[in-house]
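Dear colleague,

Thank you for sharing your sequence with our group. We've completed the structure prediction you requested, and as agreed, I am returning the results in plain text so they can be pasted directly into your records. Please verify that the sequence below matches your submission; if there's any discrepancy, let me know and we will rerun it promptly.
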Amino acid sequence: MPSANEYRIKAAELNALGKDEPDQLARSNYINLALAYLRLAEQAEKNAATDIVYETPSSDLQHHQQQQQQQQPQPDDKKDC
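Please find the predicted structure tokens below.
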């Protein structure tokens, strides 16, 4: 996965291409792509700062959770007639 700096470099390249582009539509597209790459850079920085580790629960914990689910009282849906 590219780093934030790699996204910024690509954004700068696209911005330069946009400034040199004589066609208004193409220029606008280059600039929009450059902005998208800058947003990707910001997101890459946020992702790099987040440290999430998933650990599979132990079988003892799973067994305990299953027992708790089985022990929960069930609501009585029948109405007294």
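Summary note from our side: Residues 1-49 form one domain.

Kind regards,
the structure core
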